Amino acid sequence: MLPIKSQAPAFDLESAQGASHSFPSGQNTLICFIKEDCPTCKLIVPILEQLHQKQLLILAIGQTKDGNDRLIKEFDLTMPILDDSDLKVSFAYDIDTVPTLVKTLPSGNIEAQLIGFVKEEWQALLDTELADLDDGIAWTTLPDWRPGCGSLSVDPIIADRLRAEAENSPLRARKIEVAPADDEFEFMFDQGFSDGLPLVPPTPERVLRMLAGTSREPQDIVAILPPNLAQTTVEKVAINAVMAGCKPDYLPVVIAALEAACTDEFNAHGVMSTTMGASPVMVVNGPIRDRIGMNSTLGALGQGNRANATIGRAVRLALRNMGGAKPGGTERSTLGNPMKFTMCFAESEERSTWEPLHVERGFAATDSVVTLFGMTSGPVLIVDQTSVASEQLASSMAMSLLSVHHPKSYMGSDTLLVVCPEHLDTLQRDGEMSKKQLRRLIQDSLAQPLKQLAQDEKSGVGIAAETLAKMDATRQNKLVTKFPRDEDIHIVVAGSDAGKFSGAFHGWATGSIGTISVSRKIEE
Amino acid sequence: MSTILDPTDERVPVARQPTPRPMTITGSVALLDISKPRGNILLDQFEARLKERLPGVNFNRYAKPTFTKPAPDDLRQEIRARNDYVIEALAD
Q1: Around A315, how many Cα atoms within 13 Å sit in the side-chain half-sphere?
Q2: pLDDT given at position A337
Q3: What tens digit of pLDDT does each residue of A231-258 get?
């Protein structure tokens, strides 16, 4: 309900009898919100009719068209019943319960409000209104009190639409009317909004519900999305999150991921446009994983979990729709890859013996964090069901990582190694092996003298013969590592307890020349 | 009528894309008269000329009950079900 003494909202409504009624009218007015299927409303309608006949200005506002007609017929009313079937006036008056009687002064200010029916309150109010006139109401036949019913304007299905349409709606995005003869799903495909899969229509109601997932203001700028360099508001992110199928609880993760993507370090422009076909791989850490039901165990990198699937998709849709990263436009991937639909998962921190990714990167364990990696392929499976010693498995994993980009391509990429629980157990069986030790073992295992990487008749990938010829023997025999730095082997734990199958995502151009992984705290 | 919010940066106007125009015409063509005066005469001429040029194509004639209202659903569905193309005589 609105505060006493505040200005009551103005309105123009038509009565069921066909006349127009405006408020304010410069007189004392009794505005009463009613609904035909509410027994308490039916109790007070005859009272309103009596007051109308006593020349009081009564504006009875009915919430359904059919109901208004039935009331007029049932009670043989001469009092007009105003049609508020679109519920905008009920919403503007913040009505929770019908009947609600609002008494306003000639200025239009609210003097009193009565909710439901409390006989004493009604009698007192009408005594003042009618002064010494007999109200003609048989008060003794009426009950002392009756509770009201819920106003239609707070029905959960209707209330979101009313909020979206209200004058103070927080929504600013362009509204697109989809003609009745158009199928809205086909329409969205035709407009180029889709990644190729059906989208949830971003109706104003759904977008408002999505915005409830964040404490940020709808018009806050989240990021400048490349390649169009579009200023992207929380509202626009929410629209794309609705289309992706997100729940409101996921929105803070999507927002943080887009902030991470649109940094100079991550270089979303390059990641999205390269012919190599890179895409953001998102890893979520911290308490939000459980709160929103993310999957970090069985099948974590696959389908079947709504949060994993739709958060990744929402980020991609925002980059597509706001940033303009569309295949054939600025997105020029030769083959593309399925990660361009979505790739987001949670780390299995509870199963890991290592400190989780976000703690390793300087965040508190209690923080929720999303980390983005620009990856070109994966997860490439590391199938090793027979290594039994820790170092044996580490070097076996290294052999699989030799294929990152190409076995003769060195010092150019990073990798995201997703260690499965059974492999983790094997790595730890001969004593604790830290992430740092694992990285070194992999680098040592793959290190080769420069001359071994020369181009030859079997591969044009490698160091050109003329370049090698200019090097002295010491230089030619210098060992080079597969990855530029040990830290370019990113390690997380995920997957089910059964199966000796880890996975590796292969990077793009690593470092300031291309992309650097970025972590962002998720602000809820 | 449903309403959705624009997910893009709003640089491009929202528009329905026209159906791609084919290079050849086969199958059936609907000739729809919206019932404005002389629309039927225009369509008679079209039909005669088109039959000369496209001997293998069927032509089906339709008319809206009145030009003041959208075509009834049944008529739209019938045109869609039985034809590959529509030529509509719009006005007098």
Answers
A1: 32
A2: 93
A3: 999 999 999 999 999 999 999 999 999 9
- Helices and strands (H, E) in chain A, number of each type: 18, 23
Model confidence at A417: pLDDT above 70: yes
Q: What is the pTM of this model?
A: 0.76
CA distance A279 to A341: 9
Token code pair at residue A514: 């291309």
Comparing alpha-carbon positions, the chain B residue that sits nearest to A181 is B1
Q: How confident is the model at residue A134 (pLDDT cuts 50, 70, 90)?
A: confident
Contacts of A444 (CB under 8 A, 6+ apart): none
| Closest chain A residue by Cα to residue B10 | A174
Cis previous bond, A99, omega within 30: yes
Q: Kindly list the domain boundaries of chain A, sorted by start residue.
A: 11-155, 184-447+482-521
Question: What is the ipTM score, two decimals?
Answer: 0.74
Cα angle A286, A291, A294; round to 5: 75
Are A324 and B3 a contacting pair at CB < 8 A? no
Rg of chain A over Cα atoms, rounded to whole angstroms, equals 33
C-beta neighbour count of A246 within 10 angstroms: 27
DSSP per-residue letters across A191-222: TT--SSS------HHHHHHHHTT-SS-TTSEE
pLDDT tens-digit series, residues A485-494: 999 999 999 9
Model pLDDT, residue A163: 81
pLDDT at residue A132 tops 90: no
- The answer to whether the CB of B71 falls within 8 A of the CB of B63 is no
Contact A430, A389 (CB under 8 A): yes
- CA–chain centroid gap for A439, Å, is 36
Please tell me the distance from the alpha carbon of residue A357 to that of residue A424, in angstroms, as a whole number.
15
Scanning the structure block, which residue is given the tokens 């032509």? B59
Contact A171 B5 (CB under 8 A): yes
**Contacts with B17 from chain A: Cβ below 8 Å:** 190
Best residue in A160, A176, A235 to probe B by mutation, most B CBs within 10 Å?
A: A176
- How far is residue A222's CA from residue A226's CA, in Å, rounded to a whole number? 13
Q: In this structure, which topology does domain A11-155 adopt according to CATH?
A: Glutaredoxin (3.40.30)
Angstroms from A521 CA to nearest CA on chain B:
25
Q: Is A510 exposed, middle or buried (0-12, 13-18, 19+ CB in 10 A)?
A: buried
Residue-level pLDDT at A399? 98
